[in-house]
Structure formats: C-alpha cells, structure tokens
Write a structure and sequence with these properties.
The protein has 334 residues and is α/β, with parallel strands linked by helices. Helix content is 47%, strand content 19%. The chain has twelve helices and eleven strands. It has helices at 3-36, 54-70, 85-92, 107-114, 122-125, 150-160, 174-186, 198-206, 217-225, 273-287, 290-297, 308-329; strands at 43-47, 74-78, 100-104, 126-136, 138-142, 165-168, 191-194, 212-215, 229-234, 260-268, 302-306. A six-stranded mixed beta sheet has the order 2-1-3-10-4-11, sandwiched between helices. The relative contact order is 0.17.
C-alpha cells in the first residue's frame, strides 16, 4: 500500500474511532440522566378485577396522591377475568420498565395451587414493590337468620353434620378458602355453593337460600347498615372501623383465626432496581399519609405496609399457608 493510501487508511480509522468514542460517551452520559428522570410519562396500574370492587377502590384511592408525588399521571385500568389471571398475565408480559404495575391480591398466593396450567409463576415472573395492607373477612348471615352469635352458628353446623351451606364469589376465592379453613379449625361441615361474583351470592344469602358467607368489609358494611345482613365476627386481630360493634373471631370464641384479603403492588421481573426503588419510596410515602389511610379505612382496609423484600417474604408465606388449605380440601378450579 502506498504512503498516501496508508495515510488515508489511518485517517479513516482514526475518524471512525473518534465517532464511536463520542457515541459511547454520549450514551454513558445520558444513561444515568434517563434513570434520574423516571418516570417521564404516565404510569399504569392494572387491577385484575372489575371496577367498583374492593381492589379497584384501593387502586383509585392511592392513584391520585401517587400521581402527585411522581409528577406523572397514574392510570388505573381494570382487566378482570379468570380469577384475576387475565390482568396478572398482562402485567407479566408487559415491558419491564416500571411503567406498568399490578395491584395484586390473594390470588397471587392461591392461583398457582388452583390452576396447574397457569401460564406464569407469580414469584418468578413478578417482583414486589410495596404491600398496601389488608381487610379482614367478615362472617355474615341473613338479617332474619336465627343465629345471633358465631358460637350459635358453629354449634348448628356441628349438629347438622354437613346439611348447612355457605356461598362465595367463586371456587378458590378468598371467601371460599376462609370457610374451608374455618371448617378445619372449628371441626364443622358445610356445603359450598360457588357463584359468579359476590353480589349474586349475597342476594341468595339475603333471600334465605344460604346459611352464611365470609365477605370483605366493603361488601358487608353497607348491607349491615341497611339491615339486610347480620355480621357475627371479623377474622382479624382487631375490630375494624366500618363495623366497630362486631367482635373478632378471638372475642367470639375461635382464638387465632385470621383470614384477610390483602393487596400489594408488583412489576414484571427484570424491571430496573432504580424504578422499583422510586415506585416503592413514593407508594410507601402515600400510604403513610393520614388522609389516605382514612380513605382506605372507609372501605374497610387497614394500612399495613411492607417494603419489597418483606412483601416478597409475605407472599411466600401466604402461598404456603393457603396451599395447605387447598390441598387438604381438594379444591381445584380446573
């Protein structure tokens, strides 16, 4: 190669190297800046239940103050169906960038046991961001029921040897599993009747076609206030503000019995740690706000937050706990 050609050749590669270095420098300089600006567009909360229910109410109470802290709109989208698996699967498949969160509930711990064909693993395909809290389930009967106390109901269930029935919003739902656990704890029998939703089940309870149910406070409180149903016990360590006169199971003679619906935010696996940290920090700050806590208490929710690590351990514990109930009762949704 001639001297001029060699010169041109060296100049070409020097220029190419300079461009590459400049590009790399621009990329490395801009990467931290991009992380620092998260979020720079709206964040989506997927609720895998229908609008108007307890989980939807929790999401919307949290959404506005979260948007104020993030400086971006927070959009709540309802994706109900298939025991909350449709909405959950959508989040699993979403871009892992922090802009799509799931407000998950008990189904994250129970559905893997109920559906052997579940196309995802909640503990592998989702990452906890923050737990919100819980609401204890409430054992209710028709207002015209002869049972005035929990002990009267349990004694009748014992005496009737499986001839009593109870309803729930569906096979494997929180109300169904809570009663199955109560049957084991109290040594009683009762036949389960599953419905497609809590409203038709409560309608049959009020109509006298069911003996009892366990429901969340959002469903129970207004119907108790209207005189349509009677609440016998709350399945938590403490009484709740929406039903202050209703005793806990401990107070009603069944010590240690707890059954709750709980909620927590999760994102797709492989979401950057910086995004998770930002979301967790702001969610926990929102939930520490007394005004937000008061609004959540109005729908029967008790704020009991957990960091990502603690929420992850809680999810593992709940999965094991309810797995034992499901296997013992031979429950499956397939």
């Amino acid at each position: 190669m001639g001297s001029y050609a060699s010169y041109r050749y060296r100049k070409y590669w020097q220029a190419a190297l300079a461009v590459a270095c400049a590009a790399f420098g621009t990329w490395t300089a801009s990467a931290p800046a991009h992380a620092d600006t998260f979020p720079d567009h709206p964040v989506r909360i997927v609720v895998p239940f229908a609008a108007g229910g307890a989980v939807d109410s929790v999401a919307r109470i949290i959404g506005d103050p979260l948007a104020a802290r993030l400086g971006q709109p927070v959009i709540v989208e309802n994706k109900p169906g298939n025991h909350a698996n449709i909405g959950t699967h959508e989040v699993v498949r979403a871009q892992p960038d922090g802009y799509t969160m799931l407000l998950g509930a008990n189904g994250l711990a129970t559905n893997p046991w109920l559906d052997k064909n579940l196309p995802f693993n909640p503990q592998e395909d989702l990452v906890p961001v923050a737990r919100v809290g819980y609401a204890p389930l409430v054992l209710v009967v028709d207002a015209e029921s002869p049972y005035q106390t929990l002990q009267q109901l349990l004694q009748a269930a014992h005496d009737k040897q499986g001839k009593m029935n109870y309803g729930s919003s569906g096979v494997g739902g929180s109300g169904h599993l809570a009663v199955e656990m109560l049957k084991r704890t109290a040594g009683i029998q009762a036949m389960h009747i599953g419905y497609k939703g809590g409203v038709p089940a409560l309608t049959d309870l009020i109509g006298g076609r069911l003996d009892f149910m366990m429901v969340n406070p959002l469903e129970a409180a207004p119907r108790v206030a209207a005189g349509n149903i009677r609440a016998l016990a709350v399945a938590s360590r403490q009484r709740i503000s929406t039903l202050p006169d209703v005793p806990t199971f401990d107070e009603a003679g069944v010590p240690g019995f707890e059954a709750t619906v709980w909620w927590g935010f999760l994102v797709p696996a492989k979401t950057p740690a910086t995004a998770i940290d930002t979301l967790s920090k702001h969610l926990l700050a929102v939930l520490d706000d007394k005004a937000v806590q008061k609004r959540l208490a109005g729908v029967g929710a008790i704020v009991d937050t957990q960091t990502p690590a603690a929420f992850g351990e809680s999810l593992k514990s709940e999965t094991q706990r309810w797995g034992e109930v499901i296997k013992s009762a031979g429950i499956t949704s397939n």
